[in-house]
Amino acid sequence: MTPGEYIPDPTEGITRIEDLPKPHIQQRTRNFRSRPCPRCGISAGRYALDTRTLHDLGNTHTGRPIDLFVTFSRHRCTYCGRCFAVDMTELALPKPLHTSRPKSGCSLGVRRWTRLPKCQLALMA
Ligand SMILES: [Zn+2]
Questions:
Q1: Which residues surround ligand 1, an ion (CB under 5 A)?
Q2: Domain membership flag for residue 5
Q3: Domain assignment present for 1
Q4: C-alpha span between 55 and 121 (Å, rounded)
């Protein structure tokens, strides 16, 4: 998909939620025995596993979204006591329920994708 390309909406005309395309399920894992502590840098052992569900736009041609089920490890530093989850910023930022991919070809989506300030994007256009 290139910017500005018109893609027909395959879900156009669907009025019932049950008739929408079902999401494609993908399993991902970010499970490590130890990770460096973000505060002091000492190796911190895993104490728990957790899961997170991320929604992704998926294939815009089929209209079928993707649900990522991510299993990740939580770590506790024995030196400074900090507890933290493994870094997943390549998939999504810490709080959002969706991945970092753009939501559409609009400028807001491009801005979210590149994480550039609006003034810099205006220079690129
Ligand atoms: Zn620490």
A1: 37, 39-40, 77, 79-80, 82
A2: no
A3: no
A4: 26
Residue 25 lies in a domain: yes
Map tokens 């690129």 to a residue. Answer: 124
pLDDT-derived band of residue 125, with 50, 70 and 90 as boundaries? very low
Question: If you measure from the C-alpha of residue 45 to the centroid of ligand 1, how many angstroms do you get, rounded to a whole number?
Answer: 11
The candidate with the shortest Cα–Cα distance to 75, out of 36, 44, 29, is 44
Report the pLDDT value the prediction gives residue 30, as an integer from 0 to 100.
Answer: 94
Query: How many separate domains does the chain show?
Result: 1
Q: 5 CA distance to ligand 1 centroid (A)?
A: 48
Distance 100 CA to ligand 1 centre (A): 28
Domain, as residue range, for 120: 17-124
With respect to residue 2, please indicate whether it lies within any of the assigned structural domains.
no
Taking the model in full, what pTM does it have? 0.66
**Integer Cα distance of 40 and 115 in angstroms:** 28
The most distant pair of C-alpha atoms in the chain lies apart, rounded to whole Å, by 58
